[in-house]
Structures are given as C-alpha cells and as structure tokens.
C-alpha cells in the first residue's frame, strides 16, 4: 500500500525566528513531506532566505486585506491534491522528528478524517499559560465522535489549525473551511465532520511548541473574536455551550497555583479570566454594538472592513 502524500500548508505574516525553527524542524521529519505551501501576507515583510532552507517550499503573497482565517486556508487546500493536508501556524515548532508521522498514523483508522497535535508550552511561558496548555492538550490521546457529545459537549468539536491534519477527499466532500470567517474555521469544520459520522483524533504523541503570554487586553480581543464566530454559527454553538468548560478550567488552575504555593497568581488568574469572559460576551452580542466599539474589541480589524463577503456555510448534519 502506498504511503499517503502529505502537503504542509502555512499562512504567514511577518515570519521571523520561530518560523525558521519550524522549517528546520520540518526538514528533520521521518515522514516524507511533498510540498510546503505558504500564503504570506504582505510581500515586503517576507525574507527570501526561508526559501533556501527548504527545497520544496512554495510561497504565494497576498495583501493584508485579502487574508482571512477561513478563506485563505480554503484557498490553500484548493491548491493541493495531496492525500493529507497538514495545516500549521507560523509559530508552531515541531517538538521532534516524529510530528508528521504520528499524525499520519491516526488515519490508519478508517473513521478518522482529522487529527490534531498536542501543544506544549514554550520556554519562558507563564505558569498560568503553561497550565492552560496542559488543560486543553493533555498527555493522553483520544478519538472523538458523535457519541461523545453528551459527555464532552462542544469539546467534541475541538480541533486546532495550529497543527492539524485533514483527509483531503472528505474535506472536499464536506465543503471545506468556511470562507471569510473571523476565527474558529477549524472548529466549525470539525463540527460538520463529527455530524457527518466521522471521527477526530487527538494525537498526544504528535507535539509542537506553541503558547502565548497574552496580556488582559489581548485576551479580551481574542475572546471577542471567538464570541463573534460562535454567534455566527448558532446551530453549532448554542446547542453545546462552552461556558461550563471555562469555569472548570479556572477552578482547576486556581487549585493548581495553590498546590504549587503561588497563591499570588490567583489575582492574575481571576483578572485575566474576567477579561476573557468579557470579551467573549461582547463578541456573542456583537450585533448590538456600535462599529467603533467593535473595532476596539477585535484582534482582526481588517475582517470588519468586508463583513458582507462572508460566505456562511451551514455544516452538514446527517444525523
């Protein structure tokens, strides 16, 4: 049996040292990668030396107004005829040479049509962020399907394009990523995948270093965009509310910082959590907000310049 062909697809903007580390990590992979396809925002911010690091790297440049979380990735997928599409972000650094191989292995199970990697905290990551990574990306692998919805709720649909692999044929059958979406294109697609009767694998052995030490305002803005994406797809997100999972994470994190004798971190935890929840609530009700408030709350200001372009694709519900 022939090995599945893998292409890696990475949108970039102002790529720097971390992107170079990512490329060097991909060079060491045990599983062969056919092509690395890059869509870079703003050609003037691209360093051509990246093209010398990896021989099979191909880059296409777009203007900032053309970039979209869903639409850009959908266009990248359309440009590939590989069996498996591995999407990554420019700051996801492979932890070892087995990343691609561990993800490909998940597709040996016929029902698995998407797989995502474990995210490990980078050096210098804050204690709170490191614990959050462990909460969302535990050391145990898992396979999620429709039967997990009563137990896991919305987490059944969790999948992260920081490092996620997809079966291209099924991806095309289900219509791919939504175009012109502010955020959450991976989870919206994953919902359709689960509803269509397929499974998603969380491959804990496939690991990348990826974390952010966001401040409170950045947390608010990120969660505002998350709330907007959920408000635009109520058929997914209203059936399975996520607030309970957030509360559970805050409680467990609070217990953890007390356990490690860092009680002064509780103030930061509750302050950050408050900003996250405020951003999320504002995003969920963005239609009631003046445009000037939205522009101050969002991380993706450019998206709001062309909101009418959004192609809203209802996920396939075959149940």
Notes on the structure:
- The chain is an alpha/beta fold and 319 residues long.
- The protein has two domains: 204 residues, Spore Coat Polysaccharide Biosynthesis Protein SpsA, Chain A (Alpha-Beta Complex), CATH 3.90.550; 90 residues, no CATH class.
- Helix content is 40%, strand content 18%.
- It has 13 helices and nine strands.
- Strands 1, 2, 3, 4, 5, 6, 7, 8 and 9 form a nine-stranded mixed β-sheet that branches.
- It is globular.
Labels describing this entry:
single chain; 319 residues; alpha/beta; Spore Coat Polysaccharide Biosynthesis Protein SpsA, Chain A; 2 domains; 9-stranded mixed β-sheet; 13 helices; 40% helix
CATH level-two architecture of the largest domain:
Alpha-Beta Complex
H/E element order: EHEHEHEEHEHEHEHHEHHHHH
Number of helices: 13
Task: Give the biggest sheet.
Answer: 9 strands, mixed
End-to-end separation in angstroms reads 33 Å
CATH domain fold name of the largest domain: Spore Coat Polysaccharide Biosynthesis Protein SpsA, Chain A
Q: Secondary-structure blueprint of this entry?
A:
Blueprint: E1 6-13, H1 17-27, E2 35-41, H2 50-53, E3 57-62, H3 69-78, E4 84-88, E5 93-94, H4 99-105, E6 112-120, H5 127-136, E7 142-144, H6 149-152, E8 163-167, H7 168-173, H8 185-195, E9 199-209, H9 216-231, H10 234-237, H11 243-259, H12 265-284, H13 291-297
Parallel strand pairs: 1-2, 1-4, 2-3, 6-9
Antiparallel strand pairs: 4-8, 5-9, 6-8, 7-9
Helix pairs in contact: 5-11, 9-12, 11-12
């Amino acid at each position: 049996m022939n090995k599945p062909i893998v292409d890696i697809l990475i949108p970039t903007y102002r790529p720097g040292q971390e992107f170079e580390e990512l490329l060097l990590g991909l060079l060491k992979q045990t599983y062969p990668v056919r092509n690395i396809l890059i869509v870079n925002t703003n050609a003037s911010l691209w360093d051509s030396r990246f093209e010398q690091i990896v021989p099979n790297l191909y880059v296409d440049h777009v203007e900032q107004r053309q970039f979209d979380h869903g639409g850009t990735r959908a266009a990248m997928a359309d440009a590939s005829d590989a069996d498996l599409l591995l999407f990554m972000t420019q700051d996801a650094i492979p932890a070892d040479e087995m990343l691609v191989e561990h993800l490909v292995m998940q597709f040996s199970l016929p029902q698995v049509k998407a797989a995502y990697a474990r995210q490990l905290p980078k050096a210098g990551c804050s204690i709170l962020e490191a614990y959050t990574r462990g909460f969302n990306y535990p050391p145990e692998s898992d396979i999620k399907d429709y039967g997990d919805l009563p137990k896991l709720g919305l987490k059944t649909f969790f999948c992260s394009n920081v490092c996620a692999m997809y079966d291209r044929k099924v991806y095309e059958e289900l219509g791919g990523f939504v175009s012109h979406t502010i955020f959450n294109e991976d989870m919206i697609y994953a919902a359709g995948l689960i509803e269509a009767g397929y499974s998603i694998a969380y491959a804990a052995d496939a690991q990348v270093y990826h974390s952010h030490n966001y401040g409170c305002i950045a947390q608010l803005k990120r969660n505002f965009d998350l709330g907007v994406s959920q408000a635009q797809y109520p058929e997914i997100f209203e059936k399975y509310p996520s607030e309970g999972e957030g509360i559970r994470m805050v409680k467990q994190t609070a217990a953890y910082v007390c356990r490690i004798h860092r009680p002064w971190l509780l103030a930061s935890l509750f302050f950050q959590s408050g900003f996250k929840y405020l951003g999320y609530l504002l995003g969920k009700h963005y239609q009631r907000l003046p445009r000037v408030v939205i522009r101050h709350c969002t991380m993706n200001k450019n998206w709001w310049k062309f909101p009418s372009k959004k192609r809203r694709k209802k996920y396939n519900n075959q149940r």
